[in-house]
Amino acid sequence: MTALLHTALALAGHGVPVLPLRAGKVPFGNCRTCARNACGGRPNMKTPGPCACPGVCHAWAAATTDPNVLNSPQWAAAWRRAAAVGYHPGGAGLTVVDLDNAAAIARARDTLPATMTVPTTRGEHWIYQGVMPSANAVRPGIDIKSLMAYARWLGWGSGIMAALPDSVRTLALTDPPAARRAPQTLSAPLGGQSGVCRHRSPVFLDRGIAMAERQITGAREAVHATVYRTFLAVLSTHGRCGCLTEDHTARLFAAAQAKGETARHCADAWTNALTTLGL
């Protein structure tokens, strides 16, 4: 057993889905059957787990906690050639804020709550308890790795892991102030402006989010436009009420990504809807 496989099995035992990474911190390529997703990919590519082939395929989606898969003959060659252990943060209920340089670290110290910190080659990983859509380059030198992404395992680091704060989610949903467009005039008032939220009924809110998910899932064309219009409708109803939670946002993003939207496209659509509504 290689040292990397030993580490992977230990992590899997703690509920962290893992996979081998090649030199350069990249996953192993798909097998011939799965090349260019010829196999159709794993169902919706939403959850970690071995590919049906059953090789180390589909990058982050290959991550697993099953020791039988990790020890399987199909994975043995990959572990012998591996340069590092990767893991799926979202599958472990975690979010990694990847800070790639000193400026990014300084920004995080000024704007984000302290949490477990892991040194990297060029910067730090800040690890929070909780999940959200992943997004690259949310700020210079800052990536967010959680759902449908992988990160290199570098140890548990130091410090106490904090709950995922709204300030991290805001990084992915909001462009820097200088890049934002001036708010447009609304043709109708937003709910909740009187200071009393009339949407706090869980049934009302859950029904609205479910309808929004169905609207996105049912789109057969113009998916980009449908996602934007749906985000706009949700925010116009709940954007100033304080009703929306991180779970609601994650549900909407997941529905959009299941239709082929990238995490970045989701973030852009959300940001544009916020700007349009002056939020």
Structure write-up:
- The chain is of the alpha+beta class.
- Helix content is 36%, strand content 14%.
- The strands form two sheets. Strands 4, 5, 6, 7, 8 and 10 form a six-stranded mixed sheet that branches. A four-stranded antiparallel sheet has the order 2-1-3-9.
- Strand 7 (135-139) and strand 8 (142-145) form a beta hairpin.
- Helix 6 runs antiparallel to helix 7, helix 6 (202-217) runs parallel beside helix 8 (246-258) and helix 7 crosses helix 9 (263-276).
- The chain is globular, with a radius of gyration of 20 Å.
- The termini are far apart.
**Strand count, sense and closure of the main sheet?**
6 strands, mixed
- The backbone outline, from C-alpha atoms, is globular
Mean pLDDT level:
82
Order of helices and strands: HEEHHEEHEEEEEEHHHHH
Strand content: 5-15%
The low-pLDDT segments are 174-196
Number of helices: 9
Q: Class by helix and strand content?
A: alpha+beta
Work out the helicity level: 25-40%
**Rg from C-alpha positions?**
20 Å
What separation lies between the terminal Cα atoms? 54 Å
| Overall strand count | 10
Summary keywords:
single chain; 279 residues; six-stranded mixed β-sheet; four-stranded antiparallel β-sheet; 9 helices; globular
Protein topology:
Blueprint: H1 3-13, E1 18-22, E2 26-27, H2 67-70, H3 73-81, E3 84-87, E4 94-99, H4 102-111, E5 116-119, E6 124-129, E7 135-139, E8 142-145, E9 151-152, E10 162-163, H5 166-173, H6 202-217, H7 223-238, H8 246-258, H9 263-276
Parallel strand pairs: 6-10
Antiparallel strand pairs: 1-2, 1-3, 3-9, 4-6, 4-8, 5-6, 7-8
